[in-house]
UniProtKB/TrEMBL annotation:
It comes from Prevotella bivia DNF00320. InterPro entries: DUF4252 (IPR025348). Keywords: Signal. Residues 1-19 form the signal peptide. The keyword Signal applies. This is DUF4252 domain-containing protein. It comes from the Bacteria. Pfam families: DUF4252 (PF14060).
Length: 150
């Protein structure tokens, strides 16, 4: 019975996170779009893990994956934003934080799956660039916020 429940939970989590994966896959081969995928096993091998200037080593061992999409191609930016916002709305992500400052908009979306699993997606929009950082694991919003302050 436990195995059945765990299998069902894993299948549900996989299906729900498919939308984010589809977003990254859709733009993976586009010009002037950079995508990065780092698995749990790769993070464990890397030791000190940095995303930009942020050291995420403290939470890396609790992450299932980390995905990053960055685009500077002005013709694709509106499409990426629309696609991401549609996924966040249809898959019922909650807005955890929203900041607008000097032409930059940053929104952190959160989705809870149970058993301590959370998915966070940071959507950063500024003139001429959009970036999405998506991660899933046994991390809390407090963990994510602590990264933002360091």
């Amino acid at each position: 019975m436990k195995k059945t429940i765990l299998l069902l939970l894993f299948t549900l989590i996989s299906a729900l996170s498919y939308g984010q994966k589809a977003l990254f896959d859709r733009y993976d081969d586009a010009d002037k779009v950079t995508t990065v995928y780092i698995s749990r096993s790769m993070m464990q091998l890397m030791g000190d893990v940095k995303v930009g200037d942020k050291d995420i080593s403290k939470i890396a061992s609790r992450l299932d994956y980390l995905r990053i999409l960055s685009c500077e191609r002005s013709s694709l930016i509106p499409s990426i934003i629309r696609t991401a916002q549609t996924i966040y709305k249809t898959q019922k992500y909650n807005v955890a934080m929203k900041v607008k400052d000097n032409g930059e908009q940053v929104t952190i979306y959160e989705k809870k799956y149970g058993n301590g699993k959370h998915e966070y997606s940071l959507l950063s929009i500024e003139k001429g660039e959009v970036a999405i950082i998506n991660l899933m694991g046994n991390v809390t919003l407090r963990d994510i916020q602590s990264l933002a302050h360091h």
